[in-house]
Amino acid sequence: EKMKCFLLLVSMALFIRDSSNCLESDLPFCKQVPDWHGELTCYTERKISLFCSWLPVPCAPKTTTYTIILKWDKISRCFEKTTASTSITIERKSLYMNRAVIIWVSANYSHESSVKTKNISIIPSKAEKCAIHSISAHQLSNRLIIKWDAPKKSMQYELQYKEACSTSSQWILVPTANDAVNVTVSDLNSTSSYVIQLRCRPSEDHHCVCVWSKEILVPHKLIDKPTISANETTEISPGRINVFLQWQITQSRNVIGYYVNIERIPNSCNDQPERISITERRLHLNLSMAYYRFNISAYNEAGESPQITYVVPDFTSTVLPGQITAIPQGNNTVVTWTPEYIPKCFVVDWGTGKEDMHMKIITKPMGNFTLDHLQPYKLYKIMVHASDICECESFTRHERTFGVTHFYSVQGVPRTGPATVKISNIMKHSAIVKWTEVPAEDCLGFLQGYRINYTDTMKNLSLAVAVNSSTTCYLLTGLKEKTAYTVQISGVTTAGEGAQSRSQFFTTLKYDKGEFEGIVAALCLGIISTMFFLPIICSLMLRRSRKLCWPTLPSPRDSSAIQDVARIIPRANQGLTSRLLLQTQTDNDTTILHVIEEDSKASLLLQPFSEDTEDNSECDAGQCESAGGSPDTCPSLLKIPEKATATEKERVSSSMRAPLLSDYTSMEFSQKAMLSLALNLPPWAAHPHMEGKLNNWPGKVEQHTLFTPQDYVKQSQVVFMPTGPTLMEETSLS
Fold first, then answer.
1. How much is the mean pLDDT over the chain?
2. What pLDDT shows up at residue 259?
3. The predicted structure's pLDDT at residue 623
4. Which DSSP symbol is given to 425?
5. Which parts of the sequence are annotated with region: Disordered (predicted)?
C-alpha cells in the first residue's frame, strides 16, 4: 500500500507543468486533431482590446469548455482564460501591444483529454481587422449573386457558402479574382436558401487581419409578378360593391408579404395611391361603382417583385338611389339628377373609357351639371357619386354611387358592319346566318338593330330583314332550292343604316337532308313491289283477257241442250244405261265434257218428236229414280217393235250402244253425234210416236228433222233427214 502511494507521487512530479515554461510543455495531455479546423482569429478593436474567435469542436458535448493561452515574446508568464463560448475579448491591461504573442485555444472534454487549435502569432498593435463594407446578395433561381464595395487598396477576397436549412451542410470555398467586387455561384438548388461569408486573403502588403464576415442569409429575388387566380364583384347595397381578389406567386415560400396600391380613376386629387401591406394572398374591399385600379406586388429582403395591375370592371346595378338624365344641347350636354337627400358633396365622373375619365367635385346643393367640349360620335359614360366627407383620401371609403348613364352628344351611323358573318345549316329552303356584334366604338350611336340583305344572284332579286340589336343569329326562310345567294349585314342607329359587312355566298341544296335518300328508298321499294306484284297483275289481266276473248264454257250439266238430249235419248229399262258425268275445273277457265260410260251395253234411244205437240214424254222424278237413281236418265225407254226387222233391230242396238269416247265434248261434237245417231236410227226408232202418222202419209217424201236445242247455238239450226215426212222446226237459243 505504501509502495503504491510512492509511485503516484513520482508520476505527478514528473508531469507537473512549469508555469514559466508553458510553451515547451504545450499541454502534454492535449493533442491537435485534423478534424477541428479551429479557424482561430484575433484582432484588436479600436486598439483598446483584443478580440479572438474560433469555431466550435464538431460533435462536442455541451459541457465542453475552451481555454485561450497567450505566450508573449520574452515574457515567461502565460495568459490563460477559460470560457464556454467560442469567442473572447481580452482587455487592454492584460496586453502587451507592441510585443509579439503566440495564441492557441484548447478544448477540454474531460480531466484527462483535450484538443487544441493551431498556433497563431500576431503583434496586437498591428492586428487590425480588414473591413468589408456593404455586402449585398440575392438568389436568382439557381444562382447566388454577391456584391461588395471595392476596398481602398487592391485586395483579393474569398467566399464560402452553405445551405441555410441543413445542419449537416459544410462550407464550400469559392476563390475570386484579384480586385473583384462581385461573384456569381451557379448550379444551385433553386428551392433551397443559402448563407454566405466573405473575407479578404492575407498578404505581405497588408498588415490587417482577414476575418470572415457575419453569416448573411441570401434572400430569393422576386422576379415573378403575382397572377390573379380569382375575382368577384358583388353588390352589397345600392351604390356600393364588394371587390374580392385572390392571387398566386411562384416564389411564395420566399415572400414576406404583399403590397396593394389602391388608386381611384380618375385621381384629380393627385394624391399618392393608398398602400396596404398584407401577408395573405387575398383581399376584400368595399368601394363605390367608380373605376379603381389595384397594383399588387410581393416583397422580401431582396426587394419588391414586379406589380400586377387589376382594374375593377364595369358593374351594372339595376337599383341605384337616383336617376341621371343627359340631354344634348349642341356641343354641350346638360346632366340633371334629383337626389333623395343632400350630401355634403357630389363627385361627377365622365369620359369615354377607363383611361379617359374626368372628375368634378360639386360642393353646392345643385342637381345639374353642364358638360362641354364633348366629341361627336363618342359614347360617354357619366357617374354621379355622393359623399358625406369631401376629402380626396376619403372617397374610397365613404362615397356611394348615386346614378349611372351613357349618352352621345351627336349620333351617327355605324362605320363598319359585323366583322364576321357565317352561314350554317344550309337546307333546301332555309339557312342560318350568324354574325358578331358591331364594336361599340364603331357604332357612332346607339345601335337600334341589324338589317340583313340577301340577294338571289340568278334573278338579281334582293330581300331584307330587320332584327333587334340583341340578335346575332337569324333563320332565313322561303329560299329557292339550288339557288346562289349573297348575304350582307349592316347596323342601324337613329341616324340611319351603316356600312355593310363583307358579302357571304352560299347555295341552297337541291334536296333537304334525307330527302334524296327517301326518294331512292321509295324508288327501290317501288321496284321491289312492282317485281312482286307484276306477275300477279299480269296473271289477273291474262285471265280477264281470256274471259273477254274466250268466254268461259258453262257447265254442260246445266245446259238446256243436255237436258233435251236426255229427254230425247232415253235409257233402256233392261239396264243398258249410260251416265254422262260432266266435270268442270274449279277455276272455270276451261270446261271439258267428260262422258263416262257406266254400262258398256247401255244404248241411246231417241224420244220421238211430234210436229203438232211438244215433247210430252218427260219423265217424272219417280220414273228417273226407278231407272237408276240419276236425274240424267229417263225411265221412259222405247221398246223395239216386234215387227221390226232383224237388220233394223241391230242398227238400233248398235247405235244406242255407241259411246262418246272423246275427253272433250264441244257443241260441234254433240251435234255430229246427234246427227249420226239420227241417221242410223230407223224412223220408228227416232220418232215412235209418229210411226202411225208416217204410215198414214204414203207417197210423200220422208224427211226427218233432228233438233238440238242448247245454250250455245246463236242461230237457227235445221237438220234434214233423208227419210220420212218433211218436218221443220226452228229454235233460237241465246
1. 74
2. 95
3. 38
4. S
5. 612-633
Residues 6+ away with beta carbon under 8 Å from 622: none
3-state secondary structure of 397: helix
3-class DSSP assignment, residue 531: helix
Residues 6 or more apart in contact with residue 637 via CB below 8 angstroms: 570, 571, 572, 573, 605, 627
- Other CB atoms closer than 10 Å to residue 607's CB: what's the count? 24
Going by C-alpha positions, the residue among 199, 165, 164 that lies closest to residue 43 is: 199
- Distance (Å, rounded) from C-alpha 703 to C-alpha 683? 10
Kindly report, residue by residue over 97-138, the tens digit of the pLDDT. Answer: 888 999 998 887 665 567 788 888 888 888 888 877 788 888
DSSP 606-675: PPPP-SSS-------HHHHHHHHS-TTS-S-PPPPPTTS-HHHHHHHHHHHH-----SS--HHHHHHHHH
Q: What Rg do the C-alpha atoms of the chain give, in angstroms?
A: 71
Question: Rounded to whole angstroms, how far apart are CA atoms 508 and 266?
Answer: 55
* Nearest alpha carbon to residue 84 among 112, 56, 111, 122: 56
Q: How far apart are CA 210 and CA 129, in angstroms?
A: 6
Element (H, E) at 349: strand 345-353
| pLDDT tens-digit map of 430-453 | 999 999 999 888 999 999 999 999
CA-to-CA distance for 234 and 282, rounded, in angstroms? 16
Strand ranges for 457-545 from DSSP E: 461-468, 473-476, 484-493, 496-500, 504-507
C-alpha distances in Å from residue 410, one per residue of 377, 419, 439, 494, 498: 5, 24, 18, 11, 15
Which string of b and e fits 327-352 if b means at least 16 CB within 10 Å?
Answer: ebeeeebebebebeeebebbbbbbbe
Rounded Cα gap, residues 287 and 39, in angstroms: 62
Q: Which amino acid is at 66?
A: Y
In angstroms, rounded to a whole number, what is the distance separating the alpha carbons of residues 484 and 104? 105
Among 427, 419, 433, which Cα is nearest to 474's? 433
CA distance 133 to 107: 33
Amino acid at the residue 401: T
Residue 665 exposed, middle or buried by CB count within 10 Å (0-12, 13-18, 19+)? buried
Question: Residue 719: phi, psi to the nearest 5?
Answer: -115, 125
CB atoms within 10 A of CB 359: 20
Beta bridge partners of 261: 275, 295
Residue identified by cell 368634378 is 360
Q: Which cell is 635 given?
A: 225411265
Yes or no: say if 392 and 271 are a contact pair by the CB < 8 Å rule: yes
Backbone angles phi, psi at 652, to 5 degrees: -65, -45
Going 642 to 648 to 650 to 655, the CA torsion angle's sign is negative
CA angle 625, 629, 631 (to 5 degrees): 80
Helices 667-680, 560-568: crossing angle, 10 deg rounding: 20
The span from the CA of 670 to the CA of 685, in Å, is: 19
Determine the average pLDDT of the residues in 400-410: 88
